[in-house]
Amino acid sequence: EEELSRSSHSNPGKSLVNGIKTNPASNSPKSSLPVPMGPPVYVDLAYIPNHCSGKNTDPEFFKRVRASYYVVSGNDAANGEPSRAVLDALLEGKSQWGENLQVTLIPTHDTEVTREWYQQTHEKQQELNIMVLASSSTVVMQDESFPACKIEF
Fold first, then answer.
1. Which of 106, 75, 79 is closest to 90 using CA atoms?
2. Which residues does the annotated region (Disordered) include (predicted)?
3. Is 110 inside a domain boundary?
4. Hey, is 92 helix, strand or coil?
5. Using CA atoms in the order 50, 108, 61, 65, what is the torsion angle rounded to 10 degrees?
6. Domain enclosing residue 121, as ranges
7. How far is CA 108 from the centre of its chain?
8. Across 35-151, where does the E strand assignment appear?
9. Residue 132 lies in a domain
10. What is the pTM (predicted TM-score) of this model?
11. How many angstroms from the chain centroid is the CA of residue 9?
């Protein structure tokens, strides 16, 4: 905060974002700041952003966010959810981890995209120690039923 405060006083109209000086007037919604490189983040469970849409997720996400479990929730083929490119990005990103940690992919819907990806890349998944979890349980709530998975940590 002190650094941000000093920067704002010494350079009116400029501020620090992630340690990078910016000019708020020049930041339009289309421009984005480069994300500084850093060590990867290890988490138990990560939800693949935006229903596994290719709009927001690329191999860099999987290089930097290393999860034991990734949830794929997309079920809208018309909007490209889930995206085959994102599923492929998981393979590409994981291949650069340098360690063979077990990863479990949890699709919340059975879609044609995930089935085809699973079948076409099964050998690569095994090589990278990636398991795709299939649901064997169904939850019924009110008038709706859906597949469910239990994850224990």
1. 106
2. 1-35
3. yes
4. helix
5. 130
6. 41-147
7. 15
8. 41-47, 65-72, 103-107, 130-132, 137-141, 144-148
9. yes
10. 0.68
11. 37
